[in-house]
Amino acid sequence: MLQETVIDEVDRQLVNALQIFPRISWMQLGKILGYDATTLARRWSRLRDAGLAWTVCYQQPEHLAVDLPAMALIEVDVRAGQREQVVAALTPLEEIIEIDRTSGARDLLLTVVHSSIATADAFVAASIAGVPGIRATRTRFARTLYKDGARSHLDVLPPEMLHALRRAAEGFAGEPSAPTPLLVSVMRCLLADARRPASEIAAELGHSVTSITRAIHRLFGSAWFTAKTDFAHHALGYTTAASLWYRVPSSELNAVGAGVAAAPGVRMSAAILDRMNLAITVWLRHTQDLESLLMRIEHAHPRIELCETWLIPSVAKRSGAVLTEDGRFSHQISTSHALAPVGAQTRTR
After folding, report:
1. 178 versus 211: which is more confidently predicted?
2. pLDDT attached to residue 61
3. What is the reported pTM?
4. What is the DSSP string of 311-332?
5. What's the CA gap between 248 and 106, in Å, rounded?
6. How far is CA 220 from CA 140, 232, 347, in A?
7. Contacts (Cβ under 8 Å, ≥6 apart) of 150
8. What are the E-state strand segments in 64-218?
9. 8-state DSSP, 127
10. Distance between CA atoms of 26 and 229, rounded to whole angstroms?
11. What is d(CA 245, CA 258) in angstroms, rounded to the nearest whole number?
12. Can you tell me the distance from the alpha carbon of 271 to that of 280, in angstroms, rounded to the nearest whole number?
């Protein structure tokens, strides 16, 4: 369990604001939230040092004219008493971006990103299925991702503050660009900390602070780049999570997947190439909240069928971030294997 930590409304507002605009300056954020900039910087340092909040960056290749990587959800059955040894063996693998401990018939749910369906399948066979302690695996491939964690927010700020933050983010964004050698290098430097100072990156890469600052602005203006602020959900009031698996008529799948993504607490919504063709992950403040959420979804989409419900008591890895048993940030595993090649052009729609 989490050690006792005081998380107040200011902390929640701070995390929510950095979910909207992770790179905002403390001075600018202080004017929007109405707090002293030094206070906000000190609070963020405390949250980061305690592993209660952190930032990551990653690429969204659907905005680039490249073959999209395959995303697979892997169910893992583990021999009795060996779950944590299996988790320890799987955690360092870059291709596994999420590891959920689950209830019911399976023990773990993995999210794997690979260059293609064929290479993802080979990776599961070569690097997962043979791990000592694993009895069986089942793979389901995602077709469309309607929502991921980068678009999952705390929603504690009033509309006027959200508007000001979005306007500030738009003002920060530079001219969109396809991946260049410099932009990809800068992105690698930001993978584990979206707020890393430009001066540090400039010293590491041997460029001027001006050129690195310009590159950061261009990254934040490019649709293929995403910066995300995440948090230890137990510390901010969420007691557990659940994985919901639905069967949806094919003609309604896109509408339902996008509609469900907007429901409160939904962290992930994805179309799956399977008989159960819609997978949803929700965060719950209380397990009793699940019933009301299910009823809202069924009322809004009466033709869908709930097939399976799994609780997720804890998460070992999320978006490449390795978490402690009590859900705090420990360290980041690189996700740079999933970066699109330098020179990839932006996708025209």
Report:
1. 211
2. 73
3. 0.89
4. EE-EEEEETTEEE-TTS-EEEE
5. 23
6. 32, 25, 17
7. 58, 226, 227, 228
8. 70-78, 96-101, 108-114, 134-147
9. I
10. 15
11. 15
12. 9
